[in-house]
Amino acid sequence: MLDQFGREISYLRISVTDRCNLRCRYCMPAQGVTWVDHSAILTYEQIVRIVRASAALGIKKVRLTGGEPLVRKGLAGLVEALKAIDGIASVTLTTNGLLLVEQLPDLLQAGLDGINLSLDTLDRAQFAHITRRDALPQALAGLEAALAAPGLRVKVNCVPTGENDDQLIPLAELARSCRLDVRFIELMPIGLGSALPRRTEQEVREILERTFGPALPCPQGGGDGPGRYLTFAGFTGRVGFISAMTHQFCSGCNRVRLTAAGFLKTCLQYDQGVDLKALLEAGADDAALQAAIGEAIRSKPASHHFGGDKQAADEGRNMNQIGG
Ligand code: SAM
Ligand code: SF4
User: Is 0.85 surpassed by the pTM of this model?
Assistant: First the structure.
């Protein structure tokens, strides 16, 4: 469906849990996390009802995220149920990969279409520093398993913070030898990300071009998201940039987000939307659910104002509650 600015909204990101087995510095505090109570987290049945109503309004793609989605039991069952909904063309996952080796067979069986694996470094000590857990071998085993799965679309996402400058080349090199896209995502000033340094697209591109030579144009297909892609001589895959800070993409935004607690968020930066869990628990039927989702989508804000002054409606959650 179209929002008030004529944008076609077709993509829903769903955070299935706020729990995580890592503690990335820009996403979660080291300690003292206030967890959403289990009773306040959407059940899988509630997620399926929301996605069914959303599909009737034109949502075609769903991405499961978190927290770490694979720490929630039975995720493959949810994938299977979502794939069975009329109008849902693709169900994908964003994960840190730690639990992928054991869960991938069931996820593939359930029909999972793609995986975005978050990986900020290939250096074990740096990984332990950034994520506060010594778990690089498990993440890499997850990546290897994903790459070995026939037909699965795989992307690696890295947030360049300045701390991982020496890893941008080794990470981009994954796209030289493997059939995957490596994307660099500008750190956004949400939650803990507000207080940290970041590298811009331009800075990362300069670092890459110093080693790989001039960037080359390449096909942009394979997704209708905010990623813009280029490649380098001799590369199999592509290098992408998602640059909310320096290349605002709000005018083409096609997405809304569902938090683990069931709040339908219509822009990453604002606490604006509708509490669908409350609505479901008040006994809303499918027509009422669809009407509430439709109204929230219609009212989606025009754009974020990252870099501007703080506003009263700004998001107060950390990224693990929103899903990135
Ligand atoms: N745990 C899973 C993972 O890390 O892939 C899924 C959830 S995580 C919140 C989703 C993505 O959000 C990750 O790629 C992470 O790097 C990114 N992220 C978290 N905080 C961010 C921020 N402030 N700005 C940009 N990306 C952020
Ligand atoms: Fe966990 Fe993902 Fe946040 Fe890292 S970015 S702490 S893996 S939710």
Answer: yes
